[in-house]
């Protein structure tokens, strides 16, 4: 606290001193100053999981109020686990997986409007969308609801639209971003000429009208995907050669993490309307792990998790200098291989929980709970403003036609009770009936229009035959994997 006569004493102080004092006072008055993190007990972890070793800087974990999904090591293709949140403890080696990809899975993302639908991108150049049964998997899942093919190289990024139903973005090592209507299985927007080098990450803004990207060419771009134009860009947002990240904040500003020329880790805040200079730029340390940012728009807190670090640092973003305020660090002994972040509606409001992370170790997943200590047992409405709920604000067609809508908000006053999710239905359009699009950029797959003749009918029959054979081989691989696991367990018991 300031002393009573500090006002008088402060008359003659320099502006710089007063600025520093303002910075300290802003931080000290924050209700998140005392946020503290705690790892759960061992029996509440998910144990004996072979977390993927693939060299890719995604988070390897995706969480929603029902399930935790983790990318794992898999022989003969790519797989990820989907566990109901309550299924803690040791996970049996023969536990069913989602294993339809023919190459390693690089990224996964739960649909924000359906807690049983998850998308995955893989080294096999495809995106697959899966429907998980309400109570989790009892058998391995090899058949996705839809396979989205359009990338020519591996797909390292998948991200659902925040407010429009069934709109999914994917980015690949072909430097292209494709936006799909999952409900019809169509690629409707292809941004294939905007990036000259690898795309590190893509982030939607709050209402899904813009995206921002960070790329290996050291540029941060703000893009209007429907107009297919770059709205703003910054060259050398961070001068170091190691990977950057860029995310949109609720107020429209862009937050980035990267490296300086001297390989120091940096964070920066930018206004897309004027990207000449950052609003704020902070240097942190000289560790070489990529900083993955996780953002809570309700509290304006950003959590930074470095790959290979054993800590989570968190900062509050305000509109007063210095704009990015350091709050605290959660430290542990083990380095993190990846990190999952629970949406706000999946938190326990009775315990004043404001964030929950799912930290991936080499062989386990450990939940970490962030809370704000409060004496009262009443609902803390200042910690829990209305938050984005599971209802989509727009249909896919409305968004593609140019409409925008903010997320549909819900109150957490009485906790969040997951409702019944409707099944994802994909109605593939008959390409032969569709009219040619006026917009050349959107006309992704130029399919010659033929009348169905005998040869094409025979080809379709042959194609069906091949697909059936592929499915049967995939099923056999999954069954063999489960059989191998069981035999390994028997061997281990005999050896013990």
Helix tally equals: 4
Mean pLDDT: 87
What fraction of residues sit in β-strands?
25-35%
Oligomer: single chain
Shape: globular
Number of strands: 32
Low-confidence stretches: 1-28, 430-453
In whole angstroms, how far apart are the ends?
A: 63 Å
Class per helix and strand makeup:
mainly beta
Gyration radius, in Å: 24 Å
Q: Main sheet, how many strands, which sense, barrel?
A: 6 strands, mixed
Helix content: 10-25%
GO molecular function, one term: actin filament binding
GO biological process, one term: neural crest cell migration
Keywords: Coiled coil, Repeat, WD repeat
Pfam families: DUF1899, WD40, WD40_4
Note down, in words, how this protein is organized.
- The N terminus is likely disordered.
- The strands form 8 sheets. Strands 1, 2, 6, 28, 29 and 30 form a 6-stranded mixed sheet that branches. The protein has a 4-stranded antiparallel sheet with strand order 3-4-5-7, with no helix packed on it.
- The longest helix has 42 residues.
- It is built from 4 helices and 32 strands.
- The radius of gyration is 24 Å and the shape is globular.
- With 496 residues, the protein is mainly beta.
- A hairpin with a 3-residue loop joins strand 29 and strand 30.
- 13% of the residues lie in helices and 33% in strands.
